[in-house]
Design goal:
53% of the residues lie in helices and 14% in strands. The chain is globular. The two termini are 39 Å apart. It has four domains: 2-80, no CATH class; 132-318, no CATH class; 333-515 and 753-882, no CATH class; 532-735, no CATH class. The protein is α+β, with helices and mostly antiparallel strands and 884 residues long. Strand 8 and strand 9 form a beta hairpin. Helix 3 crosses helix 11. The strands form four sheets. Strands 3, 4, 5, 6, 7, 8, 9 and 10 form an eight-stranded mixed beta sheet that branches. A seven-stranded mixed beta sheet has the order 17-20-18-21-16-15-19, with helices on one face. Strands 2-11-1-12 form a four-stranded antiparallel beta sheet.
Length: 884
């Protein structure tokens, strides 16, 4: 009865309900046969059933009380049993805490980034617009496209534009500070359901051209800079030395993606052909409208859009929307899921280790279980008792693992790449919530059942007579149990090998990336950013004047070799440019394409990029002089087919490149290739133009969304000159602060931060798996030697060589390691494809990784086997023969 209550109480209750209903119908039928009316027959049946129902309730209560008492009794007994073997208990809890802790740490990040719903009303209906067919801008849009989206009012309740990134804004007056600001359209706050604390948001008139300079503050900036002044609305603040009126303050709970200190209106013109300014656009789907329906309507809208702007757009590009969450999470989803899969393997190895411990412990208690069975204990009761011990171990490991997990998640965030989304400042959004607690509890219960069920079933099904007849405390260590423990160790080794090979592949990837020559010299170069928002810097002449003044000051600082300015650092990709070559026939429907960037004189000298032919830019390349350009070797090889590009003209068609509409610059130089798209990509075609020769439209678009980078090469340590350099830049700009001061080597490190993060994590998990596998094979061989002590004594008494005994035990361990390596290699070949997208310069079946990882694992396994073998060879034969 107890076994039935333990496994099937709900099913038994359901069956009893069915029996009672059948009884009621039969009793009613009998009463009708006696001549009673339908109502009387039913009433008499119910009265008679009342006694049965009360009996049922009484039995159910008794069963529940008995079950609760049995559970408490089992828990108390299990606790006493575990406390009597503190070494076993502590070891099992620590092993489980390690497995559960690393899983909790990684799941906490996965939960914050991937699982938590966006903190916006109707977040499941918010989508992002774009056209993924374009390699230049992806899910970004320009002003005409934004207006095209707004016209789809039957599909979208609201459409709003906003910057995802920007140069920041110079909060001047008093203490200068660079704050993060986002340009938004008037519907932004409605779309995201932004709660307002004070004042109001922008009106449609303020979001129109010449609508005035107004700003909405975040709760954090309001508190930090203005002390939470409730009368702040209506006052002015200085942004870039220009007054802006504060019209509102956001509520504390509103967190935008990305985080912002303030919001300003975009003020788009109602009719515009500006296709050079790119930003993000989000929309709120109307209730009942699906993603597929919205994309179908967008295909029709794209056709009309291309018809309205003939010759200015690529007719093959289609509009599309995707869930906003996909945009925010981006490419980190794959990395996080791979990491979660890796720590799951660590947990499985930990479970196999604890299962081995429980099997060894159960083997020593088989006589205890046999005596209990002989005294009348049911098999189910023994299984339940052993499962209770397993669950207590798992819950203890889970509690400790939760603490370790949240200590580990801080270390995890310390090495995480800075672009990891949705984790908040310093990982503030990664916190304990019901998902993390539920995950840890579920993992604890699952592992408790997983590693405890088989040992419990194995211990409870022993042959009673054989066990009672066997003598000694080591009775019952049968062949089947030994085979099971060996299989667990083999599985540990195979899983550890999978993680080790994955770590080796990522280590090889990072080595390959660092082995790539970037094409420029990053040593002794200091970089810093400056926001150039404001009316003065909407014109190219204003930026050119600032650059000329600032570079003169910087080059005059003792210790500075050369300084320059640019909107792009060399490791990051530039803008996109479509062009044709003068005098060279091309397909009229397809322009040539390349990246392009605008730079000041001195840029090539700062990064020591070699000039192969021609010359660099000089101060004489101004807005009044003929337009010039410099191309890289990749562009020359691809489009000029061996001829010299110097002196040739490239023709920029209308809409072909931001800020270079209808231009035809002359190529004055060819430079060596550099990796402007990251170290993991080969150098592509590149065009450079002087900063002074771009159009005002380009300057206005870039100063609103992109910081200006100052780059300075020094003779010594560049950090020593930071105070002097920043001081001169403040003077030249009229008090603007600089931010994100980094050496170019630090910038280079940031470009490989995600690969480093993946490599470090998988290496840690691989190391943990290797340690657990070593512990597992050591425990198995030590237990095997202990079980065979008498056999060893007999062998030595009969003249067996001690070295032969060592070789025998080492050979047994080596066979297990070889089986684990064989299975692990097969699994690793299949699973290496999952991380193929994270590899660079390394194939998923890289020979070095697939040879070195098994060798390391086998060496560690043999070292773990050697100690039990050495101990066995030093046994005293007489003491071994007397061992029970």
């Amino acid at each position: 009865m107890s076994w039935r209550r333990f496994l099937g109480r709900r099913r038994a209750d359901a069956e009893l309900e069915s029996e009672i209903e059948s009884y009621l119908e039969e009793e009613t039928a009998d009463n009708l046969a006696r001549g009673m009316t339908q109502e009387e027959a039913r009433r008499r049946a119910r009265v008679k059933l009342g006694n049965t129902q009360r009996v049922r309730e009484s039995l159910w209560q008794q069963n529940s009380v008995a079950a609760a008492e049995n559970t408490c009794r089992d828990a108390r007994y299990a606790m006493r049993t575990l406390l009597r073997t503190p070494g076993f208990t502590v070891t099992a809890v620590l092993v489980m805490a390690l497995g559960i802790g690393v899983n909790t740490a990684v799941f906490s990040v996965v939960n914050a980034v991937l699982l938590k719903p966006l903190a916006y009303p109707n977040a499941d209906r918010i989508v992002e617009f774009g056209f993924p067919g374009s390699i230049l801008v992806g899910f970004r849009s320009n002003v005409p496209e934004f207006h095209a989206y707004q016209r789809l009012s039957s599909v979208f309740e609201e459409v709003a534009a906003y910057d995802m990134t920007g140069p920041g804004f110079n909060l001047t007056g008093g203490r200068p500070e660079l704050v993060q600001g986002i340009h938004v359209t008037e519907g932004y706050f409605r779309l995201f359901g932004a709660p307002l604390l004070l004042g109001r948001t922008f009106t449609s008139q303020e979001d129109a051209p010449h609508g005035g300079k107004v700003v909405v503050l975040s709760y954090g900036l309001w508190q930090r800079r203005f002390g939470g002044d409730p009368g702040i609305v209506g006052r002015s603040i200085s942004l870039g030395n220009q007054p802006y009126t504060i019209v509102g303050v956001m509520g504390r709970q509103f967190v935008s993606e990305p985080a912002a200190d303030l919001w300003l209106p975009f003020q788009f013109p109602p009719v515009s052909q500006d296709m050079n300014s790119y930003f993000h656009v989000a929309g709120l789907l109307r209730p009942g409208v699906t993603l597929a329906q919205a994309n179908a309507q967008l295909r029709l809208a794209a056709a009309l859009y291309h018809r309205d702007y003939p010759g200015l757009t690529n007719p093959h590009i289609q509009f599309r929307v995707r869930p906003l969450r996909d945009s925010i999470v981006g490419e980190v989803r794959g990395s996080l899921l791979v990491m979660l899969g890796a720590v799951s393997l660590v947990l499985l190895i930990a479970c196999a280790n604890v299962a081995n411990l429980l099997l060894a412990r159960a083997a020593g208690r088989r006589r205890e279980f046999a005596i209990r069975s002989a005294l009348g204990a049911a098999r189910g009761r023994i299984v339940r008792q052993l499962l209770m011990e397993s669950l207590l171990l798992a819950l203890g490991g889970g509690a400790l693992g939760l603490a370790l997990g949240f200590a580990g998640v801080r270390a995890l965030l310390a090495i995480a790449p800075s672009e990891l989304p949705r984790i908040g400042a310093a990982g503030a959004a990664v916190a304990v919530d019901w998902r993390v607690l539920a995950f840890t509890l579920a993992v604890s219960l699952l592992t408790g059942i997983l590693f405890g069920l088989f040992p419990a079933l194995s211990a409870s099904c022993a042959d009673l007579n054989a066990t009672l007849k066997a003598g000694g405390s080591r009775a019952g260590a049968g062949t089947r149990q030994a085979r099971t423990r060996s299989m667990l160790v083999v599985s540990e080794i195979s899983l550890a090998l999978v993680l080790l090979i994955g770590a080796m592949l990522l280590i090889r990837t990072l080595i390959a990336l660092h082995g790539v020559g970037p094409g420029f010299d990053a040593h002794k170069v200091l970089t810093m950013e400056m926001s150039l928002t404001g009316d003065r810097y909407q014109k190219t002449a204003g930026v050119a004047e600032l650059e000329r003044n600032a570079l003169e000051r910087l080059n005059a600082i003792p210790g500075v070799e050369v300084a320059a300015a640019t909107f792009w650092l060399p490791i990051y990709d530039g803008d996109g440019l479509g062009f044709q070559i003068a005098g060279q026939p091309t397909d009229k429907d397809h322009d040539y394409g390349s990246q392009w960037m605008s730079v000041s004189p001195g840029y090539l000298r700062v990064f020591k990029i070699p000039i192969l032919r021609g010359r660099a830019f000089t101060r004489s390349d101004t807005a009044a002089s003929p337009q010039v350009a410099i191309v890289n070797e990749a562009l020359a090889d691809r489009y000029f087919h061996g001829s010299d590009p110097v002196g040739r003209q490239i023709l920029i068609s209308k809409g072909g490149g931001a800020g270079l509409d209808e231009s035809s610059p002359t190529i004055v130089g060819v430079v060596a290739d550099s990796h402007n798209d990251g170290l993991g990509q080969p150098p592509g075609p590149m065009v450079m133009v002087p900063q002074t020769q771009v159009t005002d439209a380009y300057t206005a678009s870039y100063t609103n969304v992109q910081p200006l980078y100052w780059v300075v090469r020094t003779h010594g340590d560049p950090r020593q000159l930071i105070p002097a350099i920043t001081g001169q830049l403040r003077i030249a700009s009229g008090g603007f602060p600089v931010a994100h001061i980094r050496t170019m080597e630090e910038v280079m490190g940031g470009s490989t931060a995600r690969q480093s993060f993946n490599m470090v994590l998988l290496s840690i998990f691989g190391g943990a798996a290797l340690l657990l596998a070593a512990i597992g094979i050591y425990g198995l061989m030590a237990y095997s030697v202990a079980q065979r002590t008498q056999e060893m004594g007999i062998r030595m008494a009969l003249g067996a060589d001690r070295s032969a005994l060592r070789r025998l035990i080492v050979w047994q361990g080596a066979k297990l390691a070889a089986a684990g390596v064989a299975l692990g290699l097969a699994a690793a070949f299949a699973l290496a494809r999952l991380i193929a997208g994270f590899l660079f310069g390394v194939k998923p079946w890289d020979a070095a990784a697939f040879l070195s990882a098994p060798l390391i694992l086998v060496a560690v396994a043999l070292a773990a086997v050697w100690l039990p073998a050495w101990r066995a060879s030093r046994l005293d034969p007489m003491r071994a023969l007397r061992t029970e």
